[in-house]
Structure formats: C-alpha cells, structure tokens
Amino acid sequence: MSGAVVSHWVVHSHRFETNAATREPAWVKRLLIAIALAFFALFLLLPLATVFAEALRRGWVVYFAALTEPDARSAIKLTLLVAAIAVPLNLVFGVAAAWAVAKFNFRGKQLLTTLIDLPFSVSPVVAGLMYVLLFGSQGWFGAWLLQNDFKIIFAMPGLVLATVFVTVPFIARELIPLMEAQGREDEEAAVVLGASGWQIFWHVTLPNIKWGLLYGVILCNARAMGEFGAVSVVSGHIRGRTNTMPLYVEILYNEYNFAAAFAVASLLALLALLTLVVKSVVEWRGQQQLSADQEAT
Amino acid sequence: MKFAVPIRALLGVAALWAGIAQADVTLLNVAYDVTREFYKDINAAFIERWQKTTGERIAIEQSHGGSSKQAMSVASGLEADVVTMNQATDIDLLARSGVVAQDWRKRFPYDSAPYTSTTVFLVRKGNPKNIRDWDDLTKPGIAVIVPNPKVTGNGRYTYLAAWGYAIKKGGDEAAARDFVTRLFRNVPVRDGGGRGATTTFTQRGMGDVLVTFENEAVLIERELGTGQFDVVYPSISVRAEAPVAVVDKVVDKKGTRKQAQAYLEFLYSPEGQEIVARHFYRPRLDAVMQRHAGQFKPIQLFTIDEVFGGWAKAQQAHFADGGMLDQIMVNR
C-alpha cells in the first residue's frame, strides 16, 4: 500500500518539477530540504549515535560482557519469545479482521473497525492495568486463577497479553485499505472457476496482500519488542524471569550502570534498524510488484 | 509466506529457555529500587551459608522498583516470598490486604528493620553555597532536589526529617509547617523516584543540594562522581528504618516459610550486618557498627515513632490526600 503511495508521489513531483509554472524557486527547495535533513539529524540521528557511543564508551569487552550477562541474556530471550508469540497471534487476527471488514458487509462492521483502533487511543499503562484488574489476585478472575494455580500477570502470559493488546492494530490497519482497494473481483473470478475457500485464500488473496501483510508484521514486531508501558505494569520486574529488554534498560540505567544500559539499548536500536532495512526491502519489492502488475494490465 | 521459520525460531528459544539450571528451592525477594547491589551480595552469601548448613540448593530471584509500586504488585498477586521495603507503610498495605501477618513488626528484631539509614545532603564539590544544616535549605536562592514525597519513601523521609528538625529546635507545629513550606519553595522539580532525583542532580547538573539517603549520597560521593560531590551531615536527621517481612500467604502456599524466615534472619547475622555496612547502610549490631565507625558520622537521629507517633499517623496527617503535604504544596 505504502509502495503505491510512494510511486504516486514520485510521478507527481516529477511533473511539478518539469513544468516551469509549478516549479518552486531553487532556494525554497533547498531550504525545505535543509530543514528536513537538519531536523532528522538533530532529533533522530544524533540521539541514535549517542546510544551507540555511550554503549561503546568503555570498550567492546564491557559491551559484550553487558550483553552476555545472564540477566541480559534472559531479557533478550524473553523479548524475542514474547514477540514470537504475540506477532503470529496478531497475524491470524489481523488477516481475519481485515478479511471480514474488506470482503463482507455485516452489522457492527463500523464498530469492529473502531475497536481495532482502540489500542492506539488507550495509553499502554492503562492497558497493562486492565489486565492487573482482570487477572490480579484481587481482580475479577483472581480468586479462580489462584485456586487453579494459573499465573497470568507477573508471568509470561501477562507479558504476551499486554503485548498483543498494544500491537493489535498494526496488521489489520495495514491490510484493510489494501484489501478494500483490491475489491472482490479476483475472488469472485476464482469462485466462478470452481476454487474452494482455502484455495482462494492461498492462491488468490494471500499473494495479493503478501507485501502489505509482511509490512504489517514488521511494524507489529518492532512495537512488540519495544513496548514498555503496558509490560511494565504486568511484568513484576523479576530479574532473569520477567524483565523484557526495554524494562531491563530502565533498571540498569537507574542502577547507574550506564554502559550496560546503553549496550542493551543499542541492541534494541539495532533490532529496530534491522527492521527498517527489512521494511525498506519489503516496500521496494512491493513497489516492483505493483509496477509489474500495472504493466500486465 | 513461510510459516516454518518463526515456529523453528520459537522452538529454538524455548530450548534455550529450558536450559536454565534448577535449584531445589527458589525464593523471590521483592525489594525497593536501589538495593540491587546490596542484595546481590546478601544472596550470594546466604545461598552459600544455606547449602553448608542444610545441603539444600537455593536460588533467590530479585525484583526491584519503587517501594509503593512493588507493594501494590505483591498485593495484586506477584508471588514474593519476602518483601524488603524502605518504609513500614508499604508493608502495612500488604498486612491490610491480608498477604502479610498483621503483627509483621514483631516477627523480627528491631521492629523487623535489620538496618537503617538517614537523610543527608549531597552538595557540589567544595560546598560553594556553604550548606551546613537544614536551615540553609530554606534560604532564598538555594535549589534543593528532593524526590516527590507523595510517591517515594525517600522523599517522605526528607519531608519528615525537615519537619522533625524544626520540632527538635523547639518549634511548634505552626513553626514546623512554615519551615517545611519554605524548604519546598526551593524545590524546582519533583522526581518520581529516588534514582530519578539523583540523576537530575548528578547527570543533568540541576540544583545546589540533593537531599537523599546516606547510603545513596555516600555511594555517589565515593564511587560514581568521585571528586565532584561532598556529603554534608545535618545536625539532626531522621532514622530511616528499612523493614522486611515474610509474605505469609505465598510461603504457606509454596512451602518455603523455613527458607524465607532464615533468609531474613540472615540479614541480622554478623555476616549479613557486615554486608549491610559495606553498602553504607547503618547496621544494628554494635560490633559491626564499631568496625565501621569512621564511615557513619554520629549525628542526632530521631525516629518516626518519637516525633510523629508512628508511620500510620505520619501517613494520615501528612501524606494522605488533602493532608499537610498537599496543603504545603498549594501554599508554597
């Protein structure tokens, strides 16, 4: 979807630039570019560089020691594990919700779209608190959980729940406009040709939404690994057991262990940068596919 | 779409997970914010001692956070075997919600507080503003950094220390109120945590004086900002008692009462008290105190019980909604 937006942009700006009537004066163009780049450098690149500089200030040995320390290793594992559970769950939910909204008409459709956006408007801390109120020992299900010895909050399930909650919109939001724009013609054609429901999904719908879906998964994953507020409330902060990387960074920082705090932070930043690279590749591939489709039609 | 990859990754992570060595018994100590290094030493010593005397391998997990937030988590079901806080009100909260015995104060010596600290000043090197005692903090033009008394034990001790100082100097309640009001007029920001306030003072360079626990101030003077700060002892301050308790509901369920009890008793042992002193907390054992006499200035200390009639009363009169602190903050 965003690939399509980018390509339109390129077309438009090209037309504007070649036409003398619509071309901006050179100084306006340069000024705007300079402001954008300066802002970018000051507010994004500089802090990012600081993270890496601080992390490595006491050398590579300290850096790697901080990352291989048992508590750090467990925080890294936990973060990856939570993301590995939360993202597939949201993948299934996102596709199902987008499918329902884009391909069917039903009562309450508007409500469903609104609900999908809910996690964007609710503060993550409140999201975490909701789970404490539901599953805490004094919460609604607390007594029952205690009797049956199920641990939800202050344990893995709570971390996954909180993460799923805050990352619900990413995949669905990415897919709904894409699937709406594509319409139902391809699927209708497949039905006419005698395809079953699964065949339609695997051979028609999924290839159509592949890049948008991947893009949503990447965004969802980035947020899942970086989430702080919601997981902070449900974590219990047990070292080596329920501390995710963002929580661990805060604790290290509060313990004046700046080198280690920045080392873990730099690893999070690296994961984010990696995500960005993958995202760009996905966007580029999506765009390629789009132009290929346009040529074909 | 390849779904095989995430599943394989998941299994790999799970396999790594299972590799963690298991001890016979695991205790969870839910503690306040700044005691990580302290309990790291205590835990190592206790684990060794316990294995020697009982042959049982024990593991101790730690959770650290703001004192009151930690207490709330335990009340909501965080399965702590023991809680180690910096003020009695947080454990009172747990006693009220029924997870800790009502008479928790009587379960261990010294009102269940194995060590104490006090509130002192940290100033910039050479003490350029010449800050010697509590009076100096109320002078115009002095910026005082204090963690928020509404939400931190550290800030509450500072508030009560200043109040008690005014009382001990012969003032009545009105004089004390006026004194504390003038002091808080000099507080430009109120950080939500003890460490937040320290960072404001040491890293962001704000303020002329940081009012905080002795152990925190000495730690910064000696280890973090060597040569940048001086510790100043006021003439009178508060005795800050750090209470501990076994979480009865959890140990009875897990069957860990024996270990939890021994763990907290270890804090009172000569070995435990030595570790207490090494981390700049004031030990209860005289012998240990004597050995470290040079490190703890003998200043006049009063207790919360003595001046305020106990934490429950202090909490009610000063820190409850609409209490003295709120009134002072509005009028400052």
SSE arrangement:
The complex is a heterodimer of chains A (297) and B (332).
Chain A lengths: L1 H17 L7 H30 L3 H10 L1 H34 L5 H13 L2 H12 L6 H6 L8 H27 L2 H8 L4 H30 L2 H7 L9 H10 L3 H39 L1
Chain B lengths: L3 H15 L6 E8 L3 H19 L3 E8 L1 H9 L6 E3 L3 H9 L12 H4 L2 E10 L9 H4 L6 E4 L5 H16 L4 H13 L4 E2 L2 H9 L6 E5 H11 L4 E4 L3 E7 L1 E3 L1 H7 L2 H10 L3 H9 L3 E2 L2 H6 L8 E3 L1 H5 L2 H9 L4 H8 L1
Parallel strand pairs in B: 1-2, 1-3, 5-6, 5-7, 9-12
Antiparallel strand pairs in B: 3-10, 4-7, 4-8, 4-9, 4-11
Short description:
With about 300 residues, chain A is mainly α. Chain A has helices at about 1-20, 25-55, 60-70, 70-105, 110-120, 125-135, 140-145, 155-180, 185-190, 195-225, 230-235, 245-255, 260-295. The longest helix of chain A is centred in the C-terminal third of the chain and has 39 residues, at about 260-295.
Structural class of chain B: alpha/beta
Helix and strand element order of chain B: HEHEHEHHEHEHHEHEHEEEHHHEHEHHH
User: What value does the Rg of chain A take, in angstroms?
Assistant: 23 Å
Task: State which percent range the strand residues of chain B make up.
Answer: 15-25%
Oligomer: heterodimer
The level of helicity of chain B is 40-55%
Strand content of chain A: under 5%
Mean pLDDT of chain A: 86
Overall structural domain count of chain B:
2
Report the uncertain regions of chain B. 1-21
Please work out how many helical segments of chain B DSSP would assign: 17
Unreliable runs of chain A, pLDDT <50, ≥5 residues?
1-9
Round the mean pLDDT of chain B to the nearest integer and report it: 88
The main sheet of chain A comes to:
none
Total DSSP E strands of chain B: 12
Helical residues, percent of chain A: over 70%
CATH class of the largest domain in chain B: Alpha Beta
* Secondary structure: number of strands of chain A: 0
List keywords for this structure.
heterodimer; A: 297 residues; mainly alpha; 13 helices; 82% helix; disordered N terminus; B: 332 residues; alpha/beta; D-Maltodextrin-Binding Protein, domain 2; 2 domains; eight-stranded mixed sheet; four-stranded mixed sheet; 17 helices; 12 strands
